[in-house]
Design brief:
Distance between the termini: 40 Å
CATH architecture: Up-down Bundle
CATH topology: Four Helix Bundle (Hemerythrin (Met), subunit A)
Strand content: under 5%
Number of strands: 0
Radius of gyration: 18 Å
Length: 225
Amino acid sequence: MKDLHRKTFVGLLRVFAVMAALLFLPAWTVHYWQGWLFLSVYFAAISLIFLYLMKNDPKLLERRATRRLSDEKEKTQKVIQIVMLTTFVVAYVFPAFDHRFAWSKVPPYAVVAGDVLVVLGLLIVFIVFRENTYTSPVIELDAEQKVISTGPYALVRHPLYAGSLIGLFGMPLALGSWWGLFAFIPITLVLVWRLVAEEKFLVKNLPGYSDYRNKVKYRLLPFLW
């Protein structure tokens, strides 16, 4: 268990270093208060989630901390994961260039609103983790996995993706970029691509998922889709 905790903290530090580099190198300055605020808010929230999992659901923490792209069993999912990662990096780096060349003038209240959306998205992710111990960054089934239909799963079939999209929409605002909002379109399309592929997998391999899908009509947004 201590080894898992160590790997988790080391992993968080590594991700922080990479994300900081991807912001401040393209911005070519450390005088980027929007970037510092975003990193502080994001990693404070992520750390709290991981601390909760350490105490209450170490198995889920292990899934989230140890799964890699190479663990995807289907070639299509590996392709989707690569496209998702590439799209995210582009969407994340673009606001830094926006800051460097002053393409946008985002007022502080909009920046703060973006950070609030990031926190809201992570809050939904936390609620999903608390409700469903089987969530994994790769598409797989645990031997004891069952259909979860309570909590946010009673509203939409993929609340984890819904929370992620809210946070991703807030990210360019939090980083001070209006133009960065356009990256939300390809990110949404790629996420929907993964969602549809995941549903096909679950219908085929998880008993009871077809009935759940018939009961909960909406995939991502209540009353819309």
